[in-house]
Design a protein that fits this description.
With about 140 residues, the chain is α+β, with helices and mostly antiparallel strands. Helix content is about 25%, strand content about 15%. The strands form two sheets. Strands 2-1-3-4 form a four-stranded mixed β-sheet, sandwiched between helices. A two-stranded antiparallel ribbon has the order 5-6. Strand 3 and strand 4 form a beta hairpin. The protein is elongated and about 50 Å long. Keywords: Arsenical resistance, Oxidoreductase.
C-alpha cells in the first residue's frame, strides 16, 4: 500500500503532471478519481484542515457551477461551502496530494515536490514542455 494518495482528475493537465512527478519519485500512489469517488464530507474537511487553508481556498471556480450557486458570497459559512462541494464534487480543486510529509493542493503541479518522501529519479518536463526536474533529479522551478 502506498504512502502517497492523489485526489485526481485525469482530464486535468495539472493533475496529470502532478501524478507523473509522484511516479518520477519512484512512488506508485493510490489514485482516487474524486469525480467518480468523492471524499466524504469528513475526509474533505480533514484534508482541508491538514492543508491549513481556508475552506474557500479549495473551491474551484472555472468550469464549475460556482457562479450559479453564488459561492462567491463572503457570508457563506464553511459548512455551506462544504455542502456545495459534497453536492457538486467538481467544485473541489485538484489535485490534492497526501504524503507522510503533508497534505497539499498541488497547483502548480511542482508544488508536490515539497511533500514527496523520495527525490525525483530523473528529468521531468510538464506536458507543455516546461522542464521541472533535471537529469539528476534536481528541481528547476
Amino acid at each position: 500500500m502506498s504512502d502517497v494518495t492523489i485526489y485526481h482528475n485525469p482530464a486535468c493537465g495539472t493533475s496529470r503532471n502532478t501524478l507523473a512527478l509522484i511516479r518520477n519519485s519512484g512512488e506508485e500512489p493510490e489514485v482516487i478519481e474524486y469525480l467518480k469517488t468523492p471524499p466524504t464530507r469528513e475526509v474533505l474537511a480533514d484534508l482541508i484542515r491538514h492543508m491549513g487553508i481556508p475552506v474557500r481556498d479549495i473551491l474551484r471556480q472555472k468550469g464549475t457551477p460556482y457562479e450559479e450557486l453564488g459561492l462567491g458570497d463572503p457570508s457563506l459559512t464553511d459548512d455551506q461551502l462544504l455542502d456545495a462541494m459534497m453536492a457538486h464534487p467538481i467544485l473541489i480543486n485538484r489535485p490534492i496530494v497526501v504524503t507522510p510529509l503533508g497534505v497539499k493542493l498541488c497547483r502548480p503541479s511542482e508544488a508536490v515536490l515539497d511533500i514527496l518522501p523520495h527525490p525525483q529519479r530523473g528529468a521531468y518536463a510538464k506536458e507543455d514542455g516546461e522542464q521541472v526536474v533535471d537529469e539528476q533529479g534536481r528541481r528547476l522551478i
